[in-house]
Amino acid sequence: MTLTTARTAPRVVLLNPGPVNTHERVKAAIGSPDECHREPEAQELLATVARKVTAVSGGGDTHAAVLLTGSGTAALEAAVSSVVPADGRLLVLDNGHYGERLLKIAEVHRIPVLRLEFGWARPIDLDAVDRALAADPGITHVAAVHHETSTGMLNPVGELGRLVARHGRSLLVDAISSLGAEDLDVVADHVDWCIGTANKCLEGLPGISFVVAPRERFEQLADVPGRTFYLDLHAHYTSQVGSRTPQFTPALQVLRALDEALDLTAAEGVAARRKRYTERADAIRAGLLERGVDLLLPPEHRASSITNAHLSNGMTYDELHDGLKQHGYVIYATQEKSAGVFRLANMGQLTADDITGFFAAYDEVVRRHTTPRSPSSPAPAEAAAVTR
Ligand SMILES: *Cc1c(COP(=O)(O)O)cnc(C)c1O
Asked: Is the Cβ–Cβ distance between 47 and 207 less than 8 Å?
């Protein structure tokens, strides 16, 4: 068999927070035979993937999952726009870019919304949440981000869930960058609406996202007015779970890849994956600190899959990014409110050697940047031609 050029291109090490480097079995799954989404085997695929994402979220038979074709934000928008009743109100807990996104989605759909803004890289103040809920009985739902990917902060989903449940309100959690690696259990943590995606810590390919909730909650959505046609969660639930058929054409091959990724997740185990990610993150953090690079967050707030660090050596993000890219490593910028910070994610199939290789490349990029150029030293274009 001859492979195309794109398939034989050298592996790039992805240190961005998804899409991630995937297992060979996941990549192979998208080469599955062409198929029709209304046939029994496709229906079986949807039911199987739904069962597996429910299980990885901690849900049992009382729970169901709705699968959507679209990136994580599609499932977020489906949940936010579908669950708050006409006379309800949403409290958004915001300590980063993705907290802000929850707010923006609610605003677009003209959902009455209150925002508790804690500031970027600042922890959620649970007492403030407690007071806000006590003060306003009109709040029906609370939305929060589990792993705030913009800063790498892991928010305390269990404590938050217990607090929201004590007030008798419903909790919606963006678990897009935590599910598959961080400790999360929708039952124990009182998460009513759990939103996840295929291509981060579940290590699938981009294109499928999902919402996991108790069946009862999905059924109660019949009383909530629809705010969108394509992302109407109740309509998807009725079709996918009630009639075992997708409402619209799903990305079947991406679902096949996710099915494979979920099997790999189950075989490894979420706790073991977290341990693997933590080892990579520890190596990244130790390597950065050794080189005098400052990290954004104190250790107790850090998730296992991202490290935010301050740019150093007088380098701009673009200089660092472009230099590393030439060596085959892709790093990630951060969003507007933490200028001067870059991100190294360690989600996906990364080996210890990938991290060692990254630091060799990093040192080379820094060395070239900080060594004054003399007429006898190689021209930048020549020097840049090093590949892995
Ligand atoms: C990645 C991410 C999203 C969704 O981004 P998409 O580009 O739509 O996949 C949402 N929330 C968080 C916390 C994320 O990390």
From this structure: no
Q: What is the DSSP letter of 39?
A: S
Tokens of 327: 């060596």
Beta bridge pairs of residue 153: 148, 302
- 149 close to 117: Cβ distance less than 8 angstroms: no
* Predicted TM-score (pTM) of this structure: 0.94
Say which residue the tokens 């998730």 belong to.
303
CA 206 to ligand 1: nearest atom: 9
Distance, CA 370 to ligand 1 centroid (Å)?
Answer: 35
Q: What is the mean pLDDT of each run of 10 residues along the chain (388 residues)?
A: 64 97 97 95 97 98 98 98 97 97 98 97 97 98 98 98 98 98 98 98 98 98 95 98 96 98 98 98 98 96 97 93 97 80 97 98 95 60 41
Q: Ligand 1, from 197, 199, 201, 231: best to mutate by most atoms within 8 Å of Cβ? A: 197
Which residue in 339, 347, 364, 363 sits closest to 121, CA to CA? 339
Using alpha carbons only, how large is the chain's radius of gyration in Å?
Answer: 22
Q: Would you call the peptide bond into 85 cis, given omega within 30 degrees of 0 as the criterion?
A: no
Indicate the domain borders of the chain. Answer: 23-267, 269-387
CA 128/CA 96 separation, integer angstroms: 17
CB distance 19 to ligand 1 below 6 Å: no
Give the position, in ligand 1's atom list, of the atom nearest the Cα of 146: 13
The gap between the terminal CA atoms of the chain, to the nearest Å, is 26
Tell how far the Cα of 196 is from the centroid of ligand 1, in angstroms: 9
Atom number, ligand 1, closest to the C-alpha of residue 147: 13
CATH architecture of 269-387: Alpha-Beta Complex (3.90)
Between 3.40.120.10, 3.40.640.10, 2.40.30.60, 3.40.50.720, what CATH number should domain 23-267 receive?
3.40.640.10
- The edge-to-edge listing of strands for the beta sheet with 170-174 is 63-69, 208-214, 193-197, 170-174, 141-145, 90-94, 113-117
